[in-house]
Amino acid sequence: MRRRDFLGICGGVALIGACGAPEAPRTTTTPGQLLYADTKSGLSVINTGTGLSLAAATIADPRWNHLYTLSGRHLLTLDGTTGRELARTTPPEATTVRTVSNSGRRVVLADPSPSNPYDAPGRTQTRLVIADPTGEWPAKTYTLKGNYEPDAFSNDDGFLFVVDYLPADAPEGYRVRMLNLTDGSVSPVLTRTKQVVPAGAEEIMRGDGRLGVPSPLGDRLYTLYTHQPDHLHTRDLVAGRSTGVHAFVHVLSLTEHWAYCLDLPEPFGHGPAEGHAITVSDSALHVFDTASGRAIHAEAPDLTNTTEQAIPKSTGPAFAVAASDAVHLAAGGTLFTVVDREVRRAGPTPGTPRGLALGPAGTLWMGIPDGAVHLDAGTGRELARVTIPGLITLRHAQPAV
Predict the structure, then answer these.
(1) Is the Cβ–Cβ distance between 109 and 98 less than 8 Å?
(2) Residue 229: per-residue pLDDT
(3) pLDDT at residue 386 in the model
(4) How are strands ordered across the β-sheet holding 147-153?
(5) 356 and 328 in contact (C-beta within 8 Å)?
(6) Is residue 376 part of a domain?
(7) Per-residue pLDDT at 8
């Protein structure tokens, strides 16, 4: 989660329409919806009925109930539906808010993530501040030897999963590890059988298109890796195998601290990273490679029963979102709906897709350059349109209060 500083603060307090908050231009509107979008100014919250930008922040909690940002030396907690300030604390000095726990009681404060960790010089020391947004638990600073980026908290808030870039000063790959927030030690995640990883068997990854989605229960994080250079997993290293795969989904248990990799068959991982999409429903994990025209569905929670499916090929960015009865896929210039593994063409996209979110009553919101469009999920018919200047990715939609 990589966003910029909070905007729209008047005297340090976020108010609806405060400080002359501009009304976002729009063509047509639909009442009662809030859109959450990464923009060039940060994470913005737009009311589609009024066109008002309610707040701009750095990051939201996993349930979109609260927003968090740094304003000067203060860590602010804002109501996710109104932008109203709920709490403020003064943690040790840091640059930005990077990650929030599922409980909302822990945040990571650190430097912004580099756009490409392999382009810039690395670092041999990393400073992370773990803070409680309510201020009830004292903030703690961890200075780690190595080049680390925060990924996710364990559900008990006792560990922070981190990406460890290697070599630290000139990264060529990375591995997933966990920081013990009690004693500050860093160790490998467990295997799927909850065993300690044998010495020398921690897998090193390098790839494009790291797309992460949480499970509906919030107990797992699914991360798609593409363009792996014939990657070997921990289980391959332990077994002495010498050939690997080019794409897989890294499954991280936030409750039991184990990790498992679901291999994806060829040609997953060879096409453009932006042409891959991932989403998860109550019953399955869904991965799409629109450049090659393939989809994989793995039944949750075991992920051992998988089915492969042909889908129409397309070029350009792809995004997917799962509803209770269907999976929707925006790929290139077409919107598709997948029901019981049957692909149905809903209609053309209103622009280059930049995110897909569920709307009310069988509808979708699709991000496009500088805006978002409300669509009928079954037909692709446009219902409304809102301009959101500088939109990078539409991330979520929900009813307004």
Answers:
(1) yes
(2) 55
(3) 94
(4) 147-153, 159-166, 173-180, 186-188
(5) yes
(6) no
(7) 28
Domains: count for the chain: 1
Q: Which of 208, 263, 219, 272 is nearest to 241 (CA)?
A: 263
Residue showing tokens 């966003």: 3
Low-confidence ranges of the chain (pLDDT < 50): 1-29, 231-243
Is residue 67 a part of any domain in this protein? no
Q: What angle do CA 8, 67, 189 make, to 5 degrees?
A: 140
Domain that holds residue 140: 93-188
The half-sphere exposure of 82 on its side-chain side, counting CA atoms within 13 A, is 7
Enumerate residues 6+ apart whose C-beta is below 8 A from 116: none
DSSP alpha helix (H) spans, 199-305: 234-239
Q: Name the one residue in this structure whose structure tokens are 């593409």.
A: 226
Identify the pLDDT of residue 256: 95
Is residue 399 a part of any domain in this protein?
no
What's the pLDDT at 208? 65
Strand ranges of the sheet holding 371-376, from the earlier edge strand across to the other edge: 26-28, 382-387, 371-376, 363-368, 356-358
Maximum Cα interatomic distance, the chain, rounded to a whole number of Å: 64
**What type of residue is 223?**
T
For residue 19, give the 3-state DSSP assignment: helix
Query: What whole-number distance in Å separates Cα of residue 172 and Cα of residue 328?
Result: 35
> pLDDT tens across 42-77, in order?
999 999 988 888 888 999 999 999 999 999 999 999
